[in-house]
Amino acid sequence: MKKRTFIKSGILAMGAMLITKKGSSLEYYPRPSDKKWAVLYASWCGSARDAGVWISEGMDGIANVFDVRENPDLSHYDNLIIGGAIRGGKVSQELQNYIAGNWDILRSKIRGYFAVCGNMMKPPTAETVKLLIDDHIAVLCGISNLPSRVFLGRITYGLMEPDVRKQMEGYKMPEYDNLKRSECMAFGKEILASVSNRG
Ligand SMILES: Cc1cc2nc3c(=O)[nH]c(=O)nc-3n(C[C@H](O)[C@H](O)[C@H](O)COP(=O)(O)O)c2cc1C
């Protein structure tokens, strides 16, 4: 390969890498949509991400799905759903910081909340929703009485930070997977209907 061609292809490859490295949402539009919906999630091991994607799927895929660690610009969206995985009774610090730092953009657009947790593998009750949504996520966002859902999640040891894995294995906690796509999709439909019904 000539020296000039080699340098040129090197620059092109670097450009491509820079483009792919840029944070972007998960876009699963089956067809173009003018509806400006986004799901914002925070997750450690992926169950809250899957819940977010399946919520969007329940809305026929019209919502873009963002990991809070991408620090997304949500100012161009009209409707937002916010949720996260729970550790120690709380969503991640990144999500808490993001909400605090972007509150002006978010506050008039939030249409629903979700949390993904273990809940000792027991079905979430009204008390669980109060604890994780009403008294936590809704307080962080400053807006209450929106459609909300607590989903049971998963434990996958292979995806945990080594110290966390050691701690969880110490509790003799078995791996489990209680997240249900159908429940997440139903919640997506419910939120969409709640906004359509407002006219
Ligand atoms: C270190 C740690 C702490 C957790 N704390 C809680 C908790 O306080 N309450 C709860 O119901 N579930 C708790 N869980 C269970 C997680 O919420 C559950 O595994 C969830 O699916 C994780 O979501 P993610 O895969 O999106 O990170 C905890 C899990 C871990 C690993």
Bound molecules: flavin mononucleotide
Low-confidence stretches: 16-22
Distance between the amino and carboxyl termini: 63 Å
Query: What is the number of domains?
Result: 1
Characterize the largest beta sheet: strand count, sense, and whether it forms a barrel.
5 strands, parallel
Q: What is the 3D form? A: globular
Per CATH, the architecture is 3-Layer(aba) Sandwich
What level of helicity do the residues show? Answer: 40-55%
Give the oligomeric state.
single chain
Give me the CATH superfamily: Flavodoxin domain
The CATH top-level class label: Alpha Beta
Write down the Rg. Answer: 19 Å
Class from helix and strand fractions: alpha/beta
Beta content? 15-25%
In words, what does this structure look like?
The structure is a single chain. The protein is of the alpha/beta class and 199 residues long. The protein has a single domain (35-196), classed as Flavodoxin domain (Rossmann fold). 43% of the residues lie in helices and 18% in strands. It has seven helices and seven strands; from the N terminus they run αβαββααβαββαβα. The strands form two sheets. A five-stranded parallel β-sheet has the order 2-1-3-4-5, sandwiched between helices. The longest helix has 19 residues, at 3-21. It is globular, with a radius of gyration of 19 Å. The chain starts with a helix and ends with a helix. The model is unreliable at 16-22 (pLDDT under 50). Residues 43-48, 85-89, 116-119, 153-155, 160, 164, 168 line the site of flavin mononucleotide.
